[in-house]
Every structure is written in structure tokens, then in C-alpha cells.
């Protein structure tokens, strides 16, 4: 499968259960300068809502990935570049580590060419995804680094995702995860709402994920986070 995420600095995560900011369209979202769209949310996602977002984004030139929160919402659609499937390393309920995946393989003819996993480490205990998966969010930077190494070296995962959904996380934790990784791509998501927060996390993470902001504030705010993420990747010579 393609590994285009190795080139991404910024992702917009669209929640099919949420509306866009007033007066904005999916075309506006696609034109923010983000490198890819991920479609997914924890609560109240259906295939119909998923399909609506895929159809609205398909004609623009931005990579489009589904991030299914359970096997029942996976949409089979050629307009998708692929599927990024969470595996929650610090889940309390084992179903979110392998059980849901086993059921998915039983019920679907999985398109492995277009499927890869994201090794989630969930760190905001107040997020619905933490509640759902009964994640143990009490993790030191060293423990998060160890999870990241397990993902890469033991399970061969290509993407590690430090997830603080809904709140801005600890940059030291993200730095520890980054230091633990060799080849895998590090995603960071949670509470990125402006240039500075994007810049700070993109100094450590390979890719920052912006979710709620697109729904709450809209595309102008998202564009600033794209700039922050891109600027953090510039070499000193480029920034001069
Ligand atoms: C095997 C298949 C196909 C799916 C299972 C995939 C797994 C393990 C999912 C568990 C974790 C999960 C629900 C991930 C979704 C990622 C996500 C959108 C997290 C952010 O959600 P929140 O921000 O907490 O939720 P809301 O914004 O909906 O409140
Ligand atoms: O909604 P926010 O807080 O931006 O989080 C983004 C993403 O990591 C959620 O899965
Ligand atoms: Mg959310």
C-alpha cells in the first residue's frame, strides 16, 4: 500500500457526526493546505454519514482516508486512498486491541493493500475515546516511549499516534515518543487550535492532526495550524 503519510505534516480529521463551521464547505476544508483528510469519530458514526463526507471530498486533490471506529462503519469506496485502523495499545478493554479487528476480518473481505494500522496511545482520560476503550491514560513520558517502541519493533506498526483528543498534550511526552522511534511515523492529535500549538507539537511529531477546530472555528483557523506545522519542519536556512 502507499505510505504517503511519511510526507504529511498536517492532517484534518473530519468527524462525520459534526457539522462544518457556518457557511463553509468541504471544498474549503480541502483548500486549507492540509496534506490529507482522515474521516472518523468515536461517537454516533454511521456508514451513511461517512459516505456523505467521502462523496463531498472525493473530487478534490487531497488524500482521503477513513479511520473507522468499529467494523460496522467501514465504507468500501474507490474514492478512498485507504483505511487507517486504530489499535489502542493502552486500552483496558482488549476488544480495542485485537477483538474488533478479528470481527472485522470475519465479516469483511479486507482490502489489505489499502489498510494500515495506527498504534494509538490515548492520554486524555476525559475524551470519549478514552472512556470507550477504558484506556489507562496515566502514563509517564518513559512509558509512552516504551509503547511507541513496542509498536514499531515488536508489532512492526508504521504509524504511532499520541492522542490527546480534546486537550493540548504534554510536548515532553510527544518528544519522548519521537525519540523512541526510528522509522515509524509519529502522529500527534489533540487541542491544536492555532499556529503556536501546531508549531510546538510539529517540532516533535512528524504529523499533527487537527480535529475539533475545523468544526468549531473553521478553515481560516485550520490554515494557521497548517502554517505552524509546515514552519516547524523548515530547516534554519529555509526559515532565515
Ligand atoms: C477493526 C476496526 C475496523 C475498527 C476498530 C478500531 C478501533 C480499535 C477503535 C477504537 C478507538 C477509536 C474509537 C478510534 C477513533 C479515533 C477517534 C476519532 C478518536 C477521537 O474521538 P473523540 O474526539 O474522543 O470523539 P468525539 O469527537 O466523537 O467525541
Ligand atoms: O479534536 P482535536 O482535539 O483536535 O484532536 C484531534 C484528533 O487527535 C482526535 O482524534
Ligand atoms: Mg473529538
TrEMBL record:
Cofactor names: Mg(2+)
Chief subcellular location: cytoplasm
Biological source species: Halorussus limi
Catalyzed reactions per annotation: sn-glycerol 1-phosphate + (2E,6E,10E)-geranylgeranyl diphosphate = sn-3-O-(geranylgeranyl)glycerol 1-phosphate + diphosphate
InterPro entries reported in the protein's UniProt record: GGGP/HepGP_synthase_I, GGGP/HepGP_synthase_sf, GGGP_HepGP_synthase, GGGPS_halobacteria
GO cellular component: cytoplasm
Family as reported in the entry's similarity comment: Belongs to the GGGP/HepGP synthase family. Group I subfamily.
UniProt keywords, alphabetically: Cytoplasm, Lipid biosynthesis, Lipid metabolism, Magnesium, Metal-binding, Phospholipid biosynthesis, Phospholipid metabolism, Transferase
Protein name: Geranylgeranylglyceryl phosphate synthase
Record keyword Magnesium present: yes
Keyword presence, Signal: no
NCBIfam families: GGGP-family (TIGR01768), GGGPS_Halobact (TIGR04147), PRK04169.1-3 (NF003199)
CDD domains cross-referenced by the UniProt entry: PcrB_like
This protein's pathway: Membrane lipid metabolism; glycerophospholipid metabolism
Subcellular location: Cytoplasm
Binding site for Mg(2+): 15, 42
EC number annotated for this UniProt entry: 2.5.1.41
Gene Ontology molecular function, alphabetical: heptaprenylglyceryl phosphate synthase activity; magnesium ion binding; phosphoglycerol geranylgeranyltransferase activity
Stated role: Prenyltransferase that catalyzes the transfer of the geranylgeranyl moiety of geranylgeranyl diphosphate (GGPP) to the C3 hydroxyl of sn-glycerol-1-phosphate (G1P). This reaction is the first ether-bond-formation step in the biosynthesis of archaeal membrane lipids.
Amino acid at each position: 500500500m502507499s505510505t504517503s503519510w511519511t510526507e504529511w505534516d498536517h492532517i484534518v480529521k473530519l468527524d462525520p457526526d459534526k457539522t462544518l463551521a457556518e457557511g463553509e464547505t468541504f471544498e474549503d476544508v480541502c483548500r486549507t493546505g492540509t496534506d490529507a483528510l482522515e474521516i472518523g469519530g468515536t461517537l454516533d458514526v454511521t456508514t451513511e454519514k461517512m459516505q456523505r463526507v467521502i462523496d463531498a471530498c472525493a473530487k478534490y486533490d487531497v488524500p482521503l482516508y477513513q479511520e473507522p471506529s468499529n467494523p460496522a462503519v467501514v465504507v468500501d469506496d474507490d474514492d478512498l486512498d485507504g483505511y487507517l485502523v486504530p489499535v489502542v495499545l493502552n486500552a483496558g478493554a482488549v476488544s480495542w486491541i485485537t477483538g474488533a479487528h478479528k470481527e472485522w476480518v470475519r465479516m469483511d473481505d479486507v482490502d489489505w493493500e489499502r489498510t494500515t494500522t495506527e498504534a494509538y496511545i490515548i492520554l486524555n482520560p476525559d475524551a470519549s475515546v478514552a472512556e470507550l476503550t477504558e484506556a489507562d491514560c496515566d502514563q509517564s513520558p518513559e512509558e509512552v516511549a516504551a509503547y511507541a517502541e513496542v509498536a514499531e519493533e515488536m508489532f512492526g506498526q508504521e504509524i504511532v499516534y499520541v492522542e490527546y483528543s480534546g486537550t493540548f498534550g504534554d510536548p515532553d511526552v510527544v518528544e519522548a515518543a519521537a525519540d523512541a522511534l526510528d522509522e515509524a511515523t509519529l502522529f500527534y492529535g489533540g487541542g491544536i487550535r492555532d499556529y503556536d500549538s501546531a508549531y510546538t507539537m510539529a517540532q516533535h511529531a512528524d504529523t499533527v492532526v487537527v480535529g475539533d477546530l475545523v468544526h468549531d472555528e473553521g478553515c481560516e483557523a485550520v490554515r494557521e495550524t497548517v502554517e505552524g506545522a509546515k514552519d516547524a519542519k523548515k530547516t534554519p536556512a529555509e526559515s532565515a
